[in-house]
Amino acid sequence: MNKLELAARVKEMALLMAEVAGEMKYFGGFDPEYQQHGEELANAATTAWGWYQAIEASTGKADG
After folding, report:
1. Which of 1, 16, 18, 37 has its Cα between 20 and 30 A from that of 43?
2. Burial letters for 26-60: b for 16+ Cβ neighbours within 10 Å, e otherwise?
């Protein structure tokens, strides 16, 4: 694995985390605990997206 491959995996993970966070927040309309966890996961997805951007930037091939 190289840095570009790692960046791609982290990007995929961040996008999936954001998608699941949205689904959890939807169910939060029925259960406040889901809302809370959805918000936490959304925040973690934002952090992971930053990691992806930093890794990709370190390769000189930054897309955003």
Report:
1. 1
2. eebeeeeebbebbeebbeebeebbeebbebbeeee
pLDDT, tens only, 19-43? 999 999 999 888 999 999 999 999 9
Planar angle of CA 40, 42, 43, nearest 5 degrees: 65
Domain limits at 53? Answer: 3-57
d(CA 44, CA 58) in angstroms, rounded, equals 21
* Contacts of 32-35 spanning 24+ positions with Cβ under 8 A: none
Stated pTM of the model:
0.88
